[in-house]
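Objective 1b of the project was to move from sequence-level analysis to a structural picture of ligand recognition. The entry below was assembled by the postdoctoral researcher (A.K.) and checked by the PI before modelling. It contains the amino acid sequence of the target and the SMILES of the bound compound, pyridoxal-5'-phosphate.
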Amino acid sequence: MGVYQRAPLAFERGRGVKLFTAEGDEYLDCMAGIAVTALGHGHPKLVEAVQTAAEKVWHTSNIFRIPDQEKLAGMLTDATFADVVFFTNSGAEAIECAIKTARKHHWANGQPERIDIIGFDGSFHGRTIGAIFAAGNPSYVEGFGPTPPGFVQAKFGDLEGLRELVGPTTAAILLEPVQGEGGARSWSEAELKAIRQLCDETGTLLIYDEIQCGLGRTGKLFAYEWCDGAAYPDIMAVAKALGGGFPVGACLATINAAKGMTPGSHGSTYGGNPMAMAVGLASFEELVKPELLEHVRDVAGFLSQQLTGLKDRYPDVVVDIRGKGLLIGVKLATPNREFMQHARDEHLLIAGGGDNCVRLLPPLVITVEEASEAIQKMERACETARAKAKAAAA
Ligand SMILES: *Cc1c(COP(=O)(O)O)cnc(C)c1O
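Corresponding predicted holo structure:
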């Protein structure tokens, strides 16, 4: 289906932060397949995990125990607020599981009327029917029918408005601690703490979508950790970096939040299968390493300083730098789609974003030298954008 406006570019091979076309042209990958290939391309441990798993057993179904699934679930619960995990093949499925878990929790509590999922403008939760209405982005819901009951939209950053929306039919508040697609807008620690408190006061479940901002992207294993334990969610969706390019997602929850998820209430044919879990395990073992998280904070500090320099030198092109860690949004004064093309002409790959942003989402293993190369390419793209804007004005 013609649902993508694809760039006329294909890659044959990848190593670390570099991608190569069949003709041998080299590109610096600062989008990582939208925050997926966090360990870079061709990571030896992931390659080995796939090869070894492929020789054993690919798939058995969740009718049987899957030892690597139990192991990865154990690692995820050890590292987080969560007690239980459900594995999926994508982010959107992890969100669906989160919504179902939240509603079923209230149902099991004898409050079946609590079905409302409160989402925020500028958020992105995936492309299933549930996920598009939970996010409420007008351009993603258009033509897909009326908003089903149980989805409520709140304004990003408006805590007073949120307080008024929470009522007797509220099941959960769903948010990305740092919005990805929406243009790398970040909730403050104070706001997240206030939302956690509101949830505690009203028996509302708090769902974090850390599909993009989680798994080391912000310099902590999960973005909520920036709140020093004062803003834990009850349920959390993760995916993207979890499989490093292999489709792996997960919905994490406390045992209380998941109290309604009893045998038969949910399932997946592929979710958590042996192949996916072998890669997920190998990937997660790397992502939890404190050295990697420290590295992310270091490179992110360097990039933030360098991008601020660009903003000072090109105020006619770059108007704001936002985000957290290596989830970086650069808000532009010139059209972001054109800017992505200018960057591509410099052999730099960056992602788009809402609010006329471009996003830098490099593999977490990017070195300072590679980051510095990215900045030089960004600078030349700024030159091109400036020249184009001047020519248009003349
Ligand atoms: C990518 C993304 C999703 C959807 O994940 P899919 O694997 O594409 O279904 C949901 N939420 C956020 C924050 C994302 O970045």
